[in-house]
Amino acid sequence: MSSDTVDHVIRRAEVEDADALIPLMQELGYDTSRDTMESQLGRYASSDRSIVLIALVSSNLVGLVSGHLIPALHQPGNIGRITSLIVSKQARSKGVGARLIQELEDWFLSYHCLRIEVTSGEHRDAAHRFYESHGYTASSPRFLKVPYFRRAASVAT
């Protein structure tokens, strides 16, 4: 193994991983509580259409990827949607992200996904380069609407 790669283990996330996942989510800019993380991991664990995979290096959690299956209407199969991918700063550019993506893509393909999609904030240039280096291409614009009750809650706080 070259000096720019590390040995890592990929496995499904468990509720007990919540505390270790919070710093990774914070690196992405998402502030989340332990209760929320535990609740969401429980939801993923009970779903056959969603998955969270984590990467461990020397028993340290250094990365995660999450994905969902969306049924396609126009033909049999699913759309695979990557909803988060993060590798800790100290473990980047060492093959961890590539391995997480490969494991998730394999899971998607086992569910007959017609395509795999991911969105990434316009400011995340390094992420865009990463996805492009793994065969993803920029495609359609994304349109987003925050429901009224969410907008009202953020104004009140």
Overview of the molecule:
The protein is α+β, with helices and mostly antiparallel strands. A five-stranded mixed beta sheet has the order 1-2-3-4-5, sandwiched between helices. Helix 1 (18-27) packs across helix 2 (34-45). It is 35% helix and 25% strand. The protein has five helices and five strands. The chain is globular and about 45 Å long. A hairpin with a 2-residue loop joins strand 2 and strand 3 (60-71).
Short description:
The chain is an alpha+beta fold and 157 residues long.
Beta-strand residue fraction: 25-35%
Rg on CA atoms, Å: 16 Å
Q: How confident overall, as mean pLDDT?
A: 83
| N→C terminal distance | 50 Å
Helix content bin: 25-40%
C-alpha geometry = globular
Query: What structural class do you assign from the helix and strand content?
Result: alpha+beta
- Which strand order does the major sheet show? 1-2-3-4-5
Detail the poorly predicted runs. none
Q: What is the number of helices?
A: 5
Number of strands: 5
Question: How many strands, what sense, and barrel or not for the largest sheet?
Answer: 5 strands, mixed
Order of helices and strands: EHHEEEHEHH
Tags for this entry?
157 residues; alpha+beta; globular
SSE arrangement:
Blueprint: E1 9-12, H1 18-27, H2 34-45, E2 50-57, E3 60-71, E4 78-87, H3 96-110, E5 113-118, H4 125-133, H5 148-156
Parallel strand pairs: 4-5
Antiparallel strand pairs: 1-2, 2-3, 3-4
Helix pairs in contact: 1-2
